[in-house]
Amino acid sequence: MSKTNCLPTVIHLTGTYFPTSQNWVHTQLKYLERWKPIVIANSTANLQSVEWKPDYYSREDHLPYIWRKADGAFRRVFGLHLSHYIAARRQDSEILHAHFGHRGWHALRLSHLLDIPLVTTFYGVDISRLPKQEPEWRHRYDTLFEEGDLFLVEGSNMGEQLEELGCPSRKIRVHHLGIEVDRYPCNPLCKHGDEKLRVLMAGRFVEKKGFIDGLKAFARFLEQGGRGQLTIIGDANDSKSSQSVKSGLLRIVEEREMSGHVEFRGLVPKNELKKAYYRHHVLLSPSREAQSGDNEGGAPVTLIEAQATGTPVISTYHCDIPEVVRDGEAGYLVQERDIPALTKALEDASSPNWIRRAGRRAAEHIRAEYNANKCGKEKDKIYNKLREMGG
To answer: Considering the entire predicted model, what is its pTM?
Structure first.
């Protein structure tokens, strides 16, 4: 019998396992040592891109179309997928772990039927935009906070947001999203003399990423005599707001005549983004709260990955970013939407000595606090303690 077959089992409930933008869910499972993860999802994606895979059940992969339709109808009437219940029942699991707050609420009935404790991890949109735009979720969260057993957040700021929504502080635990630091060797890009400052922005074209602010700051940097080249990795989705961000970026480049200084790379595979960190002196990530109320919740994982490579970050005092980026020592933080301050940070970041020094300190910080091995051991302890307490 293999070692994993002797371990207690934890079911991880998610929608799609796993979108490229949510690869951190996969990493969380991979580095558990004392618990065996089982994934129950509606669909799967990108599994061919990873070497290790957990055992999983997917409605899309395992149910014929006609049965998926019936399964969906069952959920609309009874509040859960019958197929999920059957798959979970076969595992004899001791803990159910839902990813994202809204899925935690939907998982309550399954948790009750299995008679096992429910852990829910919040990530961002579920804690900011969802309860603000759809008030019924405040009432649903009241039920989740009362009946759920434990709630994980990326940092202390997110924990405060969750508490403001009504979650008892005794049920909240901070648990960092770790990365595989060995896959991100520290090798800061050296800047020589009057060489152009190579700046990278990477992420989805959504308002909370603050790309409009970043591009305006970069334009000012050039206008004030700075020498730089900006690469933008990412693209818009089909939503009107995302398309608006994209058109705004293109308009600024045209109006400021920056086409020779700005390159739009579009969406790229994960390995290409990783290479981009090593080709740039600094990552610009000026996150802000969107008009819809949407925010980062914790901090973009790109900030963790970039710093691991030795690429310092310019960002904002937004959500849990100050816990990820140490201001002045391993990067620069400014207030949200403060374009002059972002411009000044780009000017200060042009110093070759600062880039090397900040890059190394950033990598040290990430290796100490956001190592996936360490985070996996910490999650083992969280599960163990929950089991000892009997949920």
So the answer is: 0.90
